Amino acid sequence: MAEIVLKDLSIEFGAFKAVDKVNLTVKNGEFVVYLGPSGCGKTTTLRCIAGLVQATSGDVLFDGQRVNDLTASERNIAMVFQFVSLYPHLNIRENIIFPLKARGIPRAEIARKLDWVTGIFNLGDELKRYPSALPPGARQKVALARAVIRNPAVLLLDEPLSAIDEQFREEMRWELGHLQRELGVTTIYVTHDQREAMSLADRIVLMSDGRIVQVGEPDRIFLEPENVFAGQFIGSPSMNLIDLTPVDGGLRLGGSNVTLTPASNLIPEWAVASRRKLKLGVRPLNVHLVEPGSDPTAFPLAVDDVFSVGRERFFMFSIDGVPYQGVDKRKTTGGAANAVHFVPDGLLFFDAETGLRVTGDAA
Question: Regarding the domain with residue range 4-233, which homologous superfamily does it belong to in the CATH classification?
């Protein structure tokens, strides 16, 4: 196992800066997930840690040792890619032990390690089969078994579940988290799927445009995003983000005629007192469509649509043509009158110019 430290890591391809002065410490045995949209630099960072891409500047350290000049094979890492690359002419047993045979490991040691890894991955019944005979999820488990059989110091996973059908993905996600905890190997996982990140990570590293936006435990990033990007990227459905304009006694909600006030709607006093343009961040689960008169903090707002997903009923409303979403809490669906309630504890405020989250202390 190893501690990984990135110091001012930058990676450039010509004039394009793929990774821009990234600093991060991944603790020994930690499961860290790099999350972000396509092209944000997460895979490039992973490949640099692996030794497959050269850093333009900055350092990569394993347990305090600078490894920039070491090849991938010298770094004692194992990497599993999005698309499984098993040898089709070898059976599962031969695929798994291939890296050990290539290194000249004695047969007795190979047999011992094979027993260990097949027990962990529950592959004993598959050893004589060939990759083409296995479903996608099982083939990915074989690739993982082949990666960890030689006890790497670091396990690097580049979207290993994205090519697997949804019916296998949930099971594989659970198994992968369980196996990482059992193995205790330092693991860095790259994905654009926030469900994978939220369910697997000890910490999430959220990236955008080659830079780290926020690092933290999944629930902290969800509840306390540091800026507009983090607030909207994490969470499904996405966070509602509505302009707030200071007016006498309150904050006007977008271009509507609704003014939110501390007394009527329980928004914080400091947000009104700051007299600055803000953006209100509120997740759909904290926006409720309620029956008129049932909640004194609710306010009238036109509703565009109401629809169901499973047992939940959602509604859509728009301000200045921008659509927003919430949860329909009404007992009945009849009647034209509607009232919308924002849960006070679920309100986040962002500076309209910088996009950074502001709090009462900062204000």
Answer: P-loop containing nucleotide triphosphate hydrolases (3.40.50.300)
